Amino acid sequence: MFKYAMLLIYLLLSFFPTTENLHAYTEERIKYEKSGDVIWEGYTDEKVVALTFDDGPSPKYTPLILDILDKFNAKATFFVTGSNAKKYPYLIYRQYLENHEIGNHTFNHDYRAENLKEELAKTATIIYEITGTTPTNFRPPEGVYNDEIVAIASEQGYTVVLWSWDQDPKDWDRPGVDAIVNHVTSNISSGDIILLHDSGGNRSQTVEALPKILEFLDENGYKTITVSEMIERTN
């Protein structure tokens, strides 16, 4: 939805000096998107969205999420930590077999630039040993990024993947199933990258919300695709 709001943002920036920080953030985003090193969402008129799940896999919640995705014939991208992938390789392999995308979310959920190269390499090795494939998309923990983080990721062949500014329902904070569903569905737009979590805490609300989100998407003609597919459509 960022793409449709860009003109409005600039008009607001013209009239309200208190929006200096927003202007700087918007300018930074434009810089990164032009380079192709960072993506927040896709730019497409097709009714497609990308569901993403961070922090997994979890032996408790990831299988439930995979079952729901399978029921709806939906695809997702899982940004996994190397530590969890190492503990639960069968879940990584299931994600791979069911044609979901597996992205890199560091080994220990550590976004510090001085550790990032090793964190990415360790996780990529584990994913490759399980699936025979190497991840090409990286989501920095907590969405933290700067020039150094982006440069390190780019040097290792990654696109940094964040999420649509209005598609973070903060499911990690357990706001309630209805709150998660309403946040996603009320802000839905073609090209959205939706942020959810399948590990890192109690994700029962996310599991319960997911079928309702997918029902809404189906009823409104949206198709779920992987992040890499979204990038291809944008390019």
From TrEMBL:
PROSITE patterns: NODB (PS51677). Residues 1-24 form the signal peptide. CDD domains: CE4_NodB_like_6s_7s. Residues 47-225 form the NodB homology domain. One of its GO terms (cellular component) is membrane. Keywords: Hydrolase, Metal-binding, Signal. This is Polysaccharide deacetylase family sporulation protein PdaB. It comes from Virgibacillus chiguensis.
